[in-house]
Amino acid sequence: MSYSFPEEMKRGSVIGNIAKDLGLQKGALSTRRSRIDTEESDKRYCDINLGNGELIVAERIDREELCGEKASCILKQEIVLENPLELHRISLHIQDVNDNSPQFNEKLISLEIHELAGRGARFVVEEAHDAD
Asked: How many other β-carbons are positioned within 10 Å of the β-carbon of residue 94?
């Protein structure tokens, strides 16, 4: 299973419905002692609401902190169901939200533009950088 959602969602925000996507009856997640196991981190970014089967955000996810400058950011986790034992892999695709302003190396940039400069003339400015 795969879910995509934006970074920085509030705790308790719904990502998707695990019970529905797995085709489980109401209450099955609770009776089968469902839980999420993480493969890559000890940090628990999401959890399951056993009452309604929703996969929810358990902790704020900052894409840049988690994946740096990688083009895609994917958290891999497993849902474990007991009696009988089942494992379901889920991929959480964290979408970038432009939450960092661009920064220039210099605080003040001065340009000298000649008064005879033509309309649409271009002027070179140093590159700005941001964490997004």
From this structure: 23
